[in-house]
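Your task:
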Amino acid sequence: MPRLLIFRCADKFLELYETYRQAKLVKSLRFCGARVLISPDARIWGTHGVTLEDDVVINAFTHIFGGGGVHIGARTMVSTGCSIASITHSESISTRRLGIEAPVTIEEDCWLGTGAIVLPGVRVGRGSIIGAGAVVTKDIPSLSLAVGVPARVVRQITP
């Protein structure tokens, strides 16, 4: 059997497997809107707590920890290497291993830059941009540009 044929068969198998894996992921989400794109290299844990509205894009190497509830609004773009966490832990050693749910809401039309981190319990307001590498530790108002560690609003965005 020629090598080229073997590689074509392998490529077709991988394509079919990825289609199956994506369909299984979408079915496991709390809700998944239309035209949602999730990179095969993105990871979502606690899918039962994740809601993705229409036209959401999640790029490669992004991790979403959805057990505490993650809602991503319509037309939001999540760049590569982002992290969104909705579970935190107690400082107390005796209860530290128990997760504390703290839902995350990213409203519609937002953009998370490369490597942005959104911590548990945070709301990112409609139309906001989170700069690359920013760590969001508290709520960000609508139509804001937030950058830095911790993320702080540097200016408002014109709609």
